[in-house]
Amino acid sequence: MDLKCKKMNCKYNDGCACMSKGITVLRSCECGTFEKSKKLDEKQRQDISRDMFEVAPEIHPFRHNREMSIECKADCLFNKDGICKSNGISVMNGKSSGVCITNIEP
Hints:
Number of strands: 9
Order of helices and strands: EEEEEEEEE
Radius of gyration: 14 Å
Strand order of the largest sheet: 1-8-9
Number of helices: 0
Largest sheet: 3 strands, mixed
Distance between the termini: 21 Å
């Protein structure tokens, strides 16, 4: 399972790769495992006075984690009895937590 995450202020985010042992995707497709990081990495912060454009984070290569568990409560094609059966998912930045954008309605 490869889990890409663009929620830059999450404590599990390491170069756009989720380092949590498992996550929960809520019915609303939001990441229920999101925990705000206590400190932001310098690469993840934008200095408006220094530049006018968003600083892109370094992205780690594909990380396959066979032990990754994704509990899924969303109405999704990949949801099989409450477990995500996709080869990988992408979580994008949402209002309060990350949002699973791999969701495909059945």
